[in-house]
Amino acid sequence: MLYDRLMAVDRDHVLRSAAALLTRKSTATMDEVAKAAGISRATLHRHFAGRDALVRALEALGIEECETALDAARLDEGPAADAVERLVREIESAAGLLAFLYTENQLFEGEEQNQGWTRIDDRISALFRRGQLAGEFRIDLTPAWLTEALYGLLASGAWLVQSGKGAPRDFRPMVVGLLLGGALRHPAQPREES
Amino acid sequence: MLYDRLMAVDRDHVLRSAAALLTRKSTATMDEVAKAAGISRATLHRHFAGRDALVRALEALGIEECETALDAARLDEGPAADAVERLVREIESAAGLLAFLYTENQLFEGEEQNQGWTRIDDRISALFRRGQLAGEFRIDLTPAWLTEALYGLLASGAWLVQSGKGAPRDFRPMVVGLLLGGALRHPAQPREES
DNA sequence: CCCCAGTGAGACAATGGTGTCTCAAATGCT
DNA sequence: AGCATTTGAGACACCATTGTCTCACTGGGG
Questions:
Q1: Which segments of chain A have a pLDDT < 50?
Q2: CA of A55: how far to CAs of A18, A33, A41, B10, B80, in Å?
Q3: Pairwise CB contact (< 8 Å): B181 & A180
Q4: Which of residues 40-69 of A touch B (CB under 8 A)?
Q5: What domains can you pick out in chain A, each with its CATH number?
Q6: Which nucleotides of strand C are protein-proximal, with an atom < 7 A from a CB?
Q7: Given this model, what pLDDT does residue A1 score?
Q8: Which of A4, A150, B28, B130 qualifies as a FRET site for B75, CA 20 to 30 Å off?
Q9: Distance, in angstroms, between B37 CA and closest chain A CA?
Q10: A184·B153 Cβ contact <8 A
């Protein structure tokens, strides 16, 4: 039906507004979320049964955007380092949402997390492992740690930009530069830019 | 008076229990905090007027531990890279608390943050700047970003250990290894361990 | 032994967010 | 214009947490 289609675009718009707001203020109330999306609390409730449902929908959105980014980054092709750069490029627009979900997930002690995340973790871990096997990456840092560190750096980068202490255009070089190269100068190894 | 001294040690014990609990479950209720400390909610309220007061006390504790770690790490001495390693070593025990406060601070949009943090930020930034001026660190990553990244990696590392996906003994090499060296192999540059 | 500061347990109202409902107004299609 | 559907605004009860209070109890010091 026509209405369903309209609901669909509205729902997506609401979801993205909520993501943008909750990224900045993770404790925002349902009323604030509604206002931020330009709708009433009643309508918000018609889209999402409750706060839980909203957060889970945001989680699904984040997972979806991650999967899309992972696909677009073609992690299997070419040097692993370049794949990492592509990944950060593709995932940059979702970094704020990821930061929100990343910290949100720390709240639940035992609760098993959405299976989608483990799948994403696996794909990213596999990339780092591939880089290690190819001799590109050091082997004394586990893929699990590199994956976790990537999340942390994405969140830190998003916050730095959010707070105005860093320029948005520097986001990718910051994250990639540190994740791959670290803070030390490596005179013989200037990373070639694509 | 005697009671004051007793209260003091109790207060500190309560504070550290609260830190340990809130590190794992940042939404823990006052009742849970009290139970975790082995006291009643009434007594908890006698120590800290309310939740705000408790969090602010935790913030003060975190700042204090950071300052202590910064002092102990002697950031001005020797190569900056070694100073970073010392800093992570000294700050490791507070990493969980830091992670809690770090994410807690993201909640408040405009609210000016505790001045203690800017002071700590400045000291760490100064360390990275020193390393850059000495030619140790690359200059295309700003000290502000390196500082933020350090926080992010400390938090990520703490969570990785918390979740059991990483061994506690690996915490420092993980954080320092990635922050300084990055993921790439640098064949000619094996970092000498102290 | 008595005193008394400190504690724990519980009652209590106040608060703030949530979820549900109603109804009038607006919107869009025919 | 007429109709169906969706919306916004508000009212409402509900719930969890908080902050305050009382009161009985314990345990250590005089």
A1: 1-6, 190-194
A2: 9, 11, 16, 39, 43
A3: no
A4: none
A5: 1-48 (1.10.10), 56-194 (1.10.357.10)
A6: 5-10, 16-22, 29
A7: 40
A8: A150
A9: 18
A10: no
